[in-house]
Amino acid sequence: MLTLHVTADTSVLVDGERVKALGPYEELAAAHPDVRVRRWPGILTPGLLNPYGPEILEHTYHPDPREADTYGTVPIGGARAREIFRADPGVLGASARRGVQRLFAHGTVALAGEVRARPVLEVVRRSGLVFGARPEGLAGPVSLSPRPLVLLPGLVVGGPARFAVFDVPDRAGLVREGASTCVATVIAGRLLYRAH
After folding, report:
1. So what CATH class is 2-46+154-194?
2. With CB atoms counted within 10 Å of each terminal CB, which end of the chain scores lower, N or C?
């Protein structure tokens, strides 16, 4: 099924896992009258690369909401995370799945860094996240919204339907306000995150 993703200044027609067309909404909608339309506030971008893949997915514990009484609701790093994984190695895959959902909620469509743990690699492969090169001289701390943000190259017709939408007026607003402004993340044409 064709889906047309529309923001104020960008329209992307998606056919399965690929970008079928880019252009003005009026032209794309007229050429495909039966298309499903998804309207988004803000800007549509090619999505972000998070340079901290292993740090976020292998070295951080992402608590299950049912564990809020024990672990709270925010990601746990450092010695405490190592302790949790040592006590029950089986939780690594589930933690990584929750970590991937957090990455999607920040417009991440690609990771950098060498992920080694088999359960985490399986989660990443199933999620559709791709790997990119880790930027040199990472400036900031490990974060779901790292500084500086690393935008991927632009979308192209025939290329993968992999992008994110942020509720900001422009790219300068995205840099200023960060990746927590994400309202939608699409990978392989599938809407994997939508803000409520």
Report:
1. mainly beta
2. C
